[in-house]
Amino acid sequence: MNMSNEEYQRYVMARAKSSPTGKNLVWAFLVGGGICGVGQGLSTLYESWGAGENALAFVSLTWVFVAAFLTGIGVFDDIARRAGAGTLVPITGFSNAMVSPALEFQSEGRITGTGAKLFTVAGPVLAYGVFASVVYGCVLMVYRMFF
Q1: How confident is the model at residue 134 (pLDDT cuts 50, 70, 90)?
Q2: Which residues, other chains included, contact 130 with Cβ-Cβ below 8 Å and sequence gap of 6+?
């Protein structure tokens, strides 16, 4: 089939479903805000239990566990389908991105399947995080030596 770019664009526009942008924005805002609101509540709870400065780290760990668990039982994808970026922007999206490939390649074995695929997404993120932490630590150390 020979089509010009303009003809192809008209064909695609005629076939494409319209996206309910307003509804998607509201869902993303509500779910993302809900995740952040519950995270703030968890932070307050952990601080009241004596976690002190570590309360935020415990909140992150809690959300990573919850998102991984919900991904494992197949619920997270249903929530993400409805909420869109509301679940992807917080740390829950990172957790889901780590667990999903591991579950997908589970049939290939624990080492070559789950173990190897677990770091397809997380590997570069973790490598960058470690590198950035080292650079930040060195800058902080030099700063404290002179100021």
Answers
A1: very high
A2: none
